[in-house]
Amino acid sequence: MTGITVILTLLLALMTLAPISTHPAWWIRVWDFPRLQILALALLTLLLNLLFVPLSSPLNWGMMAVDLACAIYQAVWIFPYTRLAKPQVVDFTGYRQRPRIRILVSNVLTTNRRADKLLALVAAERPDVLVAVETDRWWEDQLAVLEQDYPYTLKCPQDNLYGMHVYSRFRIGDAEIQYLVDETIPSMHMMVHLPQGPQVRLHCVHPMPPSPTENDESEDRDAELVMVGKSVAKSEYPVIVTGDLNDVAWSTTTRLFLKVSGLLDPRRGRGMFSTFHAGYPFLRWPLDHVFHSDDFVLGSLRRLTDVGSDHFPIMVELVYAPRQGEQQESLEKHREDEALAQEKLGATDSTPEEVHTPGG
């Protein structure tokens, strides 16, 4: 048993130390994702050491110290995404009707052929805007029936797992499909006109993840998020950024995005709402996101039912209440954050000015 716990403790130390580096290699960045699972493994290894390894052994005390340190370190990262933390976005209160927008985000999985499940979900939930990613021409044909109720659309079918479609009840304008970092990876940028409410800048993104099968490094993903984040930072309009970011809510990159953009994450203080992987309950993390400016407060946030994909859809209702939203605080940006943002942009020779600015 001592040999097993030694191996587990060494693995825990490596998995915990690796993502401290800002190196973009996939085999380093991948350990940003399973922090909850690493925390659970650290606690299990600590328990094994307590139960089966003699406490008289100095080696055991050293291993338990490492296990405990790993558990605490991982807990610090995920703590903001538990109900123990203070919510970053406040719940809407009051009886007065306010303009609002309900957005359903779903990575459909290109090879998934259960479009009926997504259509049934849309019929039941009746979102104002549907953002579907990984959509190809087949999915476009299946979702065409939505256009009776969702007459405003933006479509980019692709066969490379990076297609994207937006269907909206609300009028959209000044829309543009862009390929910000990679000529095969689209993003969508548009103005959504809320009835009896403001115009809202909506940015939909789905950058490529760092993985051995797609991109050896995270540079493209990181740069795209920083580009969009800096682009919306000084927006005169309310802002929403959504999509499958292929990054977890607690990663260095997503935190950097929130710092440079000034946007808020309704997950913080409410839970992880893990959307991937739908097929493996013990290997899930939050990849699909909705971030917004402080013009909005939260009506509701839910992870929805399975639609046959490897992602669960997520649904958010945002209420336009800028006076109530003034009390919300974004993450504080420091000098080193700006330096890291510039490093991310420099790695791909990208600039925020390349991002389409709806509303000019």
UniProtKB/TrEMBL annotation:
Region (Disordered): 325-360
Domain of life: Bacteria
Keyword Transmembrane helix part of the UniProt annotation: yes
Record InterPro entries: Endo/exonu/phosph_ase_sf, Endo/exonuclease/phosphatase
Entry keyword set: Membrane, Transmembrane, Transmembrane helix
MF (Gene Ontology): catalytic activity
Gene3D superfamilies referenced in this protein's UniProt entry, alphabetically: Endonuclease/exonuclease/phosphatase
Residues in Endonuclease/exonuclease/phosphatase domain copies: 107-311
Membrane spanning residue stretches: 38-55
Name the UniProt record assigns to this protein: Uncharacterized protein conserved in bacteria
